[in-house]
Write a structure and sequence with these properties.
With 456 residues, the chain is an alpha/beta fold. It has two domains: 252 residues, Aldehyde Dehydrogenase, Chain A, domain 1; 188 residues, Aldehyde Dehydrogenase, Chain A, domain 2, CATH 3.40.309. The chain has 14 helices and 22 strands. The chain has a seven-stranded mixed beta sheet with strand order 12-13-14-11-10-16-17, sandwiched between helices. Strands 7-6-5-8-9-20 form a six-stranded mixed beta sheet, sandwiched between helices. Strands 3-4-22 form a three-stranded antiparallel beta sheet, with no helix packed on it. Helix 8 links the parallel strand 8 and strand 9. The protein is globular, with a radius of gyration of 23 Å. The chain binds nicotinamide-adenine-dinucleotide.
Length: 456
């Protein structure tokens, strides 16, 4: 498998891809190693994650450069991902003991009856991952899974394989046995081979299209399945905002990571009273973004990681223009080596256009005027997706009223494109099923076992 730098088109290296036999052998190793890992004390398993965190901080600059070279992410944003990861690991380290301890629900001395719950590991799990935030989306799964006593077969995205191999090396150095965390490398065919093994659960991050295939395959086998999928995340800008501040914040939410985040802002609705001023401020902000070599400290817009996405973005822009949208900025690929798309702002969009319905996953945004709050809620909810949604307003009551009516896994007041380890991360509709992060996102890697205990 060739690893290509999307910013230059240059081949970085070759990595072996696992065929069905290799995947089978890895599964067998994980299956036989898991009970020993589960029998270790929780304290030991948490200590390994603490060591993993140290490994990351020691190698931070090398890891950031690898990530930037293989996915085209601006170097500062690669460093931010690693810094953010430290905070997530701190959460898992601090919270796991509480989340995984046995619970006594009833201790009735008269009836001599006790009822308890223990949190048992699922066993061997498959973690099939995406490339856009490989440290975040990977660790949301494999860290609590390992802490809970599972063995993990981790398939990094074929676009973030080198990062996946760094992660594997660091976990092993940190004290996770080599047969308890195993990298499975390759593309979708390798992922499909992994799903054919008798795993006890599949935890997937990726597109709705692939997620639907995985759900179908897992459903027949009655194993636990979690899918963290795409989004078409809306923001509503009310008529009482500081227009310049809101425009800068929403533009960052749309264009950070070159728009390649599951929770990127993908639709903007603006109250008609401030629409024109907002659009002017938004375009002025986006014009200031520096596009260029992702290794350059000043770069804000990097490369498009997957080459086929360029055609999707071009098609969305053409479709919007044909149906009456106004192209205010960008609109096409940039002619240079590698995969590049100009930051693109479309106004006068509506829901007949693909750009307001299909995930763009790139630096393209549509802005639509709305008459009032009711119209904004209708538009926000008119989507196959439901990952996040946000409202910008000076009025807290108004924000809470609006957000209560929005159908999404996470809702934001005066912020966007934000994830917290303390809160559950989940989506509704085509954005997925199940959740990661928070206490629930630790317990999700376990099976609650019910104990009915009566003294004779
Ligand atoms: P993708 O669906 O193309 O690939 C995801 C993973 O699935 C890769 O590892 C790939 O090799 C594997 N795969 C592909 N076909 C498979 C098959 N038939 N069987 C098993 N595995 C298979 O997605 P991507 O391009 O890597 O990621 C981008 C998508 O992920 C976007 O839609 C984005 O919104 C979503 N995403 C969601 C979250 C979230 O938390 N909800 C986070 C990050 C990314």
């Amino acid at each position: 498998m060739k690893i290509i730098n999307p910013a230059t088109g240059a081949v970085l290296t070759d990595v072996p891809s696992d065929g069905i036999k290799a995947v089978r052998a890895k599964y067998d190793r994980a299956r036989s190693a898991q009970p020993r890992w589960a029998a270790q004390s929780l304290r030991k398993r948490i200590a390994a994650i603490r060591n993993f965190k140290e490994q990351i901080s020691e190698r931070q600059e090398t890891l950031a450069r690898t990530l930037t070279q293989e996915v085209g992410k601006p170097i500062r944003q690669s460093r931010n991902e690693l810094k953010g990861l430290a905070g997530r690991l701190d959460f898992f380290i601090a919270e796991s003991t509480r989340a995984l301890r046995d619970e006594t629900l009833l201790a009735d001395s008269e009836q001599k009856l006790e009822e308890r719950i223990s949190h048992e590991p699922l066993g061997v799990i498959a973690n099939i991952s995406a490339w856009n935030y490989p440290y975040f989306v990977g660790s949301n799964v494999f860290v609590p899974a390992l802490v809970a006593g599972n063995a993990v077969l981790y398939k990094p995205s074929e676009y973030a394989t080198l990062t996946g191999l760094h992660i594997t090396e660091m976990l092993h150095a940190a004290g996770v046995p080599e047969d308890v965390f195993i990298a499975v490398t390759g593309d979708g065919a390798t992922g499909a081979a992994l799903l054919r093994q008798s795993v006890d659960g599949v935890f997937f991050t990726g597109s709705y299209r692939t997620g639907a295939k995985i759900a179908a395959s897992a459903g027949r086998r009655m194993i636990k399945v979690q899918l963290e999928l795409g989004g078409k995340d809306p923001i509503y800008v009310c008529d009482d905002v500081d227009v310049n501040a809101a425009a800068a914040a929403v533009a960052d939410g749309a264009f950070y990571n070159t728009g390649q985040s599951c929770c990127s802002v993908e639709r903007v609705y603006v109250h008609e009273a401030v629409h024109d001023a907002f659009v002017d401020a938004f375009v002025a902000e986006v014009k200031r973004y520096k596009i260029g070599d992702p290794l350059d400290e000043g770069t804000y817009i990097g490369a498009i990681t997957r080459r086929p996405q360029l055609a999707v973005l071009k098609r969305q822009v053409a479709d919007a223009k044909k149906k009456g949208a106004k192209l205010l900025l960008g609109g096409d690929v940039l002619k240079r080596k590698g995969n590049w798309f100009a930051p693109t702002v479309l106004a006068d969009v509506d829901h007949s256009m693909e750009v307001m319905r299909e995930e763009s996953f790139g630096p393209v945004i549509g802005i639509q005027a709305v008459a009032d709050d009711d119209a904004a809620v209708d538009q926000m909810n008119d989507s196959d997706y439901g990952l996040t949604a946000g409202v910008y307003t000076a009025n807290e009551k108004r924000a809470k009223k609006l957000l209560a009516r929005v159908n999404a896994g996470s809702v934001y007041w005066n912020c966007c494109d934000r994830v917290s380890p303390r809160l559950p991360w989940s989506g509704v509709k085509h954005s997925g099923i199940g959740l990661t992060l928070s206490t629930y996102g630790i317990q999700t890697f376990t099976r609650p076992k019910a104990w009915h205990l009566r003294e004779a």
